[in-house]
């Protein structure tokens, strides 16, 4: 499995969960969206860095 794919997918799920909780728990939602986006960015960085090693 490609390195960085798991954090990117996990971050997408956490970001979506935070978006769903936006109206009911705004502070928790903001934290979840922030952590989720951080995972997406870090996973994307890993995917880009290791893209040439797959070929």
TrEMBL record:
Residue spans crossing the bilayer: 28-48
Keywords from the UniProt entry: Membrane, Transmembrane, Transmembrane helix
Protein name (database record): Asparagine synthase
Phylogenetic classification of the source organism: Bacteria, Bacillati, Bacillota, Bacilli, Bacillales
């Amino acid at each position: 499995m490609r390195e960085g794919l798991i954090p990117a997918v996990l971050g997408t799920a956490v970001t979506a969960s935070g978006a769903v909780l936006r109206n009911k728990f705004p502070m928790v939602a903001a934290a979840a969206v922030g952590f989720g986006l951080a995972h997406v960015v870090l996973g994307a960085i890993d995917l880009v860095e290791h893209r040439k090693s797959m070929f």
